[in-house]
Amino acid sequence: MAIQWFPGHMHKARKEIKKVMPKIDLIIEVLDARIPYSSENPLIAELRGEKPCIKLLNKSDLADAQITQLWIDHFQASRNIKALAVTQDQPAQIKQTLKMCRQFFPERNVAVKPIRVLIMGIPNVGKSSVINTLAGRFIAKVGDEPAITKRQQKIILDNGIELMDTPGFLWPKIHNVSSGYRLAITGAIKSTAMEYEDVAMFAADYFATAYPGYLLKRYKLDALPKNDIEILDAIAKKRGFLQAGG
């Protein structure tokens, strides 16, 4: 099963990025730290080629810290890539990105030739919040719905860096079913792109396997039910979501 959710503005964004890429020095790709593999857009790797890249693992406060560190090590093992875990309530953390940008160009006189940075990411990874923090002011609209940013915008920062924002975009077909579910759970694709029940059952099965203790504690369950449907029933009962008749 391939998931298709590629609105017209995403197709337009891809064409515009390809056009502007020759003028760009460096890429910042914002990832969701909870799903680094699933939120890494293969089209971004294709478009950037060999240009330096900073992988920002955003929302790291919601992710498993040990797994996040493994991903940072994995990314930094590649040539021309740096990686950093960040969270929105630690702006100083996010601003380290600017220092990392300059480290790629130690000899550059940024007063004469600014570092041109393109910031990209799939929808709903928190890219707009990162931009606002880097700029030190409200620049980009922030929201929980995917695909808030609809057009490119150029932001001049105070430290010799020009930042270009782009709309969040996915790849046309998501063939990895597991990745599709993860993208749906974290809000990267519209809720209408998949069946609610399928997404919920995937989430229940995943957490029961990877983090059973979390499920028990979060939903105050006495014991972990045997399968995904029973887990969802138990959670619904605890939260008073079951209607009369089951």
TrEMBL record:
Gene Ontology molecular function: any one = GTP binding
Q: Which GO annotations describe the biological process of this protein?
A: translation
Keyword line: GTP-binding, Nucleotide-binding
Q: Where is the CP-type G domain?
A: 14-172
Please give the name of this protein: LSU ribosomal maturation GTPase RbgA (B. subtilis YlqF)
Q: Which organism is it from?
A: hydrothermal vent metagenome
